[in-house]
Amino acid sequence: MRKFELIAPCHFGLEAPLKREITELGYDIMSVEDGRVTFYGDEEACVRANICLRTAERILIKVGSFPARTFEELFHGTKALPWEAYIPRDGRFWVAKAASVKSALFSPSDIQSVMKKAMVERLRETYHETRFEESGASFPLRVFLMKDEVTVGLDTTGDSLHKRGYRKLTARAPIAENLAAALIMLTPWKGDRILVDPFCGSGTIPIEAAMMAANMAPGMKRGFTAMDWPHVIGGSIWEEIRQEAAEQVDLQVETDIQGYDLDDEMVSIARANARLAGVDKLIHFQKRDVSALSHPKKYGFVITNPPYGERMEEKENLPALYRTLGERFRSLDAWSLYLITAYEGAEKEIGRKADKNRKIYNGMMKTYYYQFQGPKPSSKRRREA
Hints:
Layout: E1 3-9, H1 15-25, E2 28-33, E3 36-42, H2 43-52, E4 60-67, H3 71-79, E5 92-101, H4 108-127, E6 138-146, E7 149-155, H5 177-185, E8 194-197, H6 204-213, H7 235-247, E9 256-261, H8 264-277, E10 283-287, E11 301-304, H9 312-315, H10 318-331, E12 336-341, H11 346-350, E13 356-362, E14 365-372, H12 379-384
Parallel strand pairs: 5-6, 8-9, 8-11, 9-10, 11-12
Antiparallel strand pairs: 1-3, 1-4, 2-3, 4-7, 6-7, 12-14, 13-14
Helix pairs in contact: 2-7, 3-4, 5-6
């Protein structure tokens, strides 16, 4: 079975939960850098990572790396890589994305063009062809330039891993599924404890929590680009790992996961998405204002993505909204509050300094994950639960 260096990109600031996930799958971490984790694995590792990782954006097979400060160096470095080991005679190949940080070469379009020409020349010499139809399977590439070091990865995933396949309808500014999963994983929450999202929108945070509680792999119901590469990853491996994941799902687990939203339509959308995910019986969605946030039990979690105030008219309402959230949080008995926001007045209006604060980039937007930690339940209470 072939061995690979596998690269898993993620949101900046979420490398730690991704590293933990990969380690828990049983694979050795090679390096952790801003926005990506590299690990070592075989064909099964590539498949299992695509199907099982909750916080990654995609899985890349590292084709190689080399230094380049000029386009000539970029061309020759690209041409020297063993493209014929991955791309067949009829393969469709292109550089889908090029990113450059602190490097002499910084134009994505020029980088993409030069690398494509170098790949064509290498494959032309290998296959003794003058022209490629590119009518076969797709082989998209992702390229990172960091301080003039070029790293080239073959994208096995296709559509980003945050696209689980269940979210057909969304709110106006939905949180990505892999980001929602990472936020939950950065808390001590477990499936047997209470979780409430009072700004649930299309239901992403409660749905991701329910999938974790049921031990449901996020990629079970979607396809991947590398499924069309039997010469790279054996075709039967995909079905074997998918079946392995399906056998581990437990929909009989008891949960207390709730999602509120003020908008009737959003509540309906959240319920529909939960049904598509197969976890609708594990979540209770309802139309409810944050001012009605309450729960009779102790030691629960509020994990939420409240409005940030991107629109001017929304900004006027933010202080009152966050004050209300803080008031309702204080009324809960021994609960914890975790929220991601770009609103700088969050701590002031909630009325308490966060115990922890993590900077996370939500796309290009800098946000903060405020963590207001409640007391831990006693050992006796945990045993009773």
